[in-house]
Amino acid sequence: MHFLNTLNGEITSQPPIWIMRQAGRYLPEYRYIRNTELDFIEFCLNAEKASDVTCQPITKFNLDAAIIFSDILLILHMLDFKVSFIKNKGPKLKKLGFKEKITFNDWNKFKSSLAPVGKAIRLSRAKLDKNVTSRNTPIIGFSGSPWTLFTYLTEGQSSKDFSNARKFLWSNTQGSEEVFEILVQAIICFLEIQLEAGVDAIMLFDSWAGSIPARFRNKFIYEPTRKIVQYIRAKNASIPIICFPKSMGEGIVEFADIISPNCIAVDHLTDMRFVHKSISKNITIQGNIDPVCLIHGGDTLKKEVDYLLNLISDRPYIFNLGHGILPETPQQNLIDVISYIREKNIGISIS
Ligand code: CP3
To answer: Does any ligand 1 atom lie closer than 6 A to the CB of residue 327?
Structure first.
């Protein structure tokens, strides 16, 4: 509950700890279960397997929060933009052309196709509660934010410069607004499934927020995100919401003012001194450690942790990285950093 108290604005002597992509390829246990399923979407929709990998990093590292194992691209898959994952290449999906509209409108079908995510959450709750140390560990539900989903929809894959997504916005702003309306509806639906299944907090991943032209931030980041947050709060007043508007630079301040999330996750490219000075102390801060620094580990990592924790000791903070943990991260570095934060000494080795 330490994690939820911090999300709700309490300052504690040690920050709660969880890690973005904590259930992932750096874990041999994850890779083992992942290999039992060819297709990644099928894997996400297998409630038994998804709940097993959700619990793996909790039972192994005693982290302070679980995040349900799923993916932001499930939404696009269920909107009939078939997503597949190509090994070592990332996602591929049917792409929305510049003049095209989303024709999907069967929301009952959409909801029932995502029911396995709700089931995985209920199973994760039961599995965590079986074990004394993981009992009551909060579960975070999540979605991609509209802009980040829009980039995958219009690029058909991951992108470096997002030129198709930006071209869509400039050449068909009215059509873009219609696409965003559908994405907002789909995101709300996806989050409702997770809330009904009992998640304790919500996180909105806007991984590519730093790539939208600043002139469009208001229309395509702030407005749609605000709609989602307001809707969720109107229905579930006590659910804390974490937003991750990655790499927005100075835009993170306006984002925090307009959206007013309980917590802002900060990437590693943003100067924490700026964030600390510019964002209201009522908002909890999460993250900021460079994932590559966690790969490096040792004293360098400890110094970074000291720097960060000293800098923001007078406000609620949740320890996390500035982006997802990388597959090549040694597990021991994660074990060491957790015990360093909790005890200020280095943990016992695992085999
Ligand atoms: O542990 C957790 O954090 C929960 C599970 C989770 C995954 N994806 C599992 C996953 C979460 C929260 C996500 C979010 C996600 N998915 C984001 C936002 C966060 C971020 O990292 O920016 C994005 C942009 C995606 C889209 C996505 N999913 C891509 C681009 C890829 C391929 C590249 C990669 O990182 O592997 C995925 C696949 C994916 N999602 C994997 C995992 C564990 C790896 C798939 C595998 O096992 O082969």
So the answer is: no
Domains of the chain: 2-346 (3.20.20.210)
Look up residue 157 and give its DSSP letter: B
**pLDDT digit string (tens) for the chain, length 351 residues:** 699 999 999 998 899 999 999 999 999 999 999 999 999 999 999 999 999 999 999 999 999 999 999 999 999 999 999 999 988 889 999 999 998 999 999 999 999 999 999 999 999 999 999 999 999 999 999 999 999 999 999 999 999 999 999 999 999 999 999 999 999 999 999 999 999 999 999 999 999 999 999 999 999 999 999 999 999 999 999 999 999 999 999 999 999 999 999 999 999 999 999 999 999 999 999 999 999 999 999 999 999 999 999 999 999 999 999 999 999 999 999 999 999 999 864 444 443
204 lines ligand 1 (CB under 6 A): no
Which is the closest atom of ligand 1 to the Cα of 31? 47
DSSP 113: H
Which residue type sits at 61? F
**Centre of ligand 1 from the C-alpha of residue 187, in Å:** 17
Six-digit token pair at 152? 């995958």
Are the C-beta atoms of 203 and 265 separated by less than 8 Å? yes
Query: How far apart, in whole angstroms, are the C-alpha atoms of residue 341 and residue 123?
Result: 30
Residue 247 Cβ < 6 Å to ligand 1: no
Name, in order, each residue with C-beta under 8 angstroms of 279's C-beta and a sequence gap of 6 or more: 252, 253, 256, 264, 285
Mutating to test ligand 1, I would choose from 18, 20, 21, 203 the residue with most ligand atoms within 8 A of its C-beta, which is 21
Taking the CA of residue 44 as reference, the ligand 1 atom at the shortest distance is 9
How many angstroms from the chain centroid is the CA of residue 307?
24
| Contacts for 264-272: CB closer than 8 Å, 24+ residues apart | 265/20, 265/203, 265/320, 266/322, 267/210, 267/322, 267/323, 268/293, 268/321, 268/322, 268/323, 269/210, 269/322, 270/322, 272/308, 272/311, 272/312
Model confidence pTM above 0.90:
yes
**Amino acid letter at 277?**
K
